[in-house]
Amino acid sequence: MAVQTRGLFASVADRRDADEQLLATLDPAEGAGAVARAIDAAERSLVVILSACGDGEAARLVPRLGQAATRGVEVRLLAGMALLEHRFFMELLDTYAPDVHVRLVRESLHEAVLTDGTVGVAWSRTGPSIGGLAVVRAPDVLRNLRALFQVSWTNSPTLADYRRLSDHVRSDTARQILLALSSGRTDEAAARGLSISVRTYRRYVAEIIRELGANSRFQAGARAVELGLLPSVPGGS
User: Fold this and answer.
1) In the sheet where 101-105 sits, what is the strand order?
2) Domains (ranges, CATH) in the chain?
3) Cα(163)–Cα(167) distance, rounded to whole angstroms?
4) Mean pLDDT lowest for which of 63-77, 90-104, 208-222?
5) What is the DSSP string of the chain?
6) I need a labelling partner for 127 at 20 to 30 A (CA). Which of 29, 95, 197, 202 fits?
7) pLDDT tens digits, one per residue of 130-169
8) Number of other CB atoms surrounding residue 47 within 10 Å
């Protein structure tokens, strides 16, 4: 998604001479204010894409997102899986933004806020630093950004679904079992690899299938990918 987004911004930049208002680049120091204004201006819908949730700037956005949802705006936050490592950020969501819809995505994200389909603020990161910040008003680019977002949103698990899983299903042992199921290894070979008995392995498999709400081993593997417990390609990164 990040590569496609950069291409969209480049296409707008090529047309800046024709209409300077299509894309306005900003100094990174102006970023927090621009994002806050975009969130506060939303009347119908608000799309927020964050890859880094551990810094202060991201945390300060949460109450604003909650206020937008309270006034009737549909707020959707698509965050990187790293969100799960930031307990403070999740506590902020629970306290200040309980009506915000949150989903998690594995791939690299180009961070952005899209307001009512009429304006977008987008930025890139180099480590913790923010750069490449721009305000976009080009309708065709905003449509394409929303389309890219929608694809990622549709294929990503909800934060609520992920949080319902027990620590057991999110453990490394469970992940190895899910990888074994996805790769078609026999129960005997998988059990040997985990240094457990076949009986114990099969009990673990049954518990995992039950908790994932699946009806078969194949369905459990598909559900695991859906929830971000496994990569899309078994063994991939």
Assistant:
1) 23-25, 129-136, 119-126, 111-115, 45-50, 74-80, 101-105
2) 20-159 (3.30.870.10), 165-227 (1.10.10.10)
3) 9
4) 208-222
5) -HHHHHHHHHHHHHTTTT-GGGEEE--GGGHHHHHHHHHHH-SSEEEEEES--SSHHHHHHHHHHHHHHHTT-EEEEEEEGGGGG-HHHHHHHHHH-TTSEEEEE-S---EEEEETTTEEEEEEEETTEEEEEEEE--HHHHHHHHHHHHHHHHTS-BHHHHHHS-TTTTSHHHHHHHHHHHHT--HHHHHHHHTS-HHHHHHHHHHHHHHTT-SSHHHHHHHHHHTTSS-SSTT--
6) 95
7) 667 889 999 998 999 899 999 999 988 899 988 888 888 9
8) 22
Kindly state the tokens that stand for 95. 């306290």
d(CA 38, CA 213): 39
pLDDT bucket at 88, cuts 50 / 70 / 90: very high
The token duo for 203 is 């009990």
Q: Find the angle CA(131)-CA(89)-CA(108) to the nearest 5 degrees.
A: 45
CB-based contacts of 161, cutoff 8 Å, min separation 6: 227
- Tracing tokens 């790293």 back to the chain, one arrives at 82
Type of residue numbered 199: R
Angstrom distance (rounded) from CA 110 to CA 127: 13
Distance CA 191, CA 202 (A): 9
Residue keyed to tokens 């949080």: 163
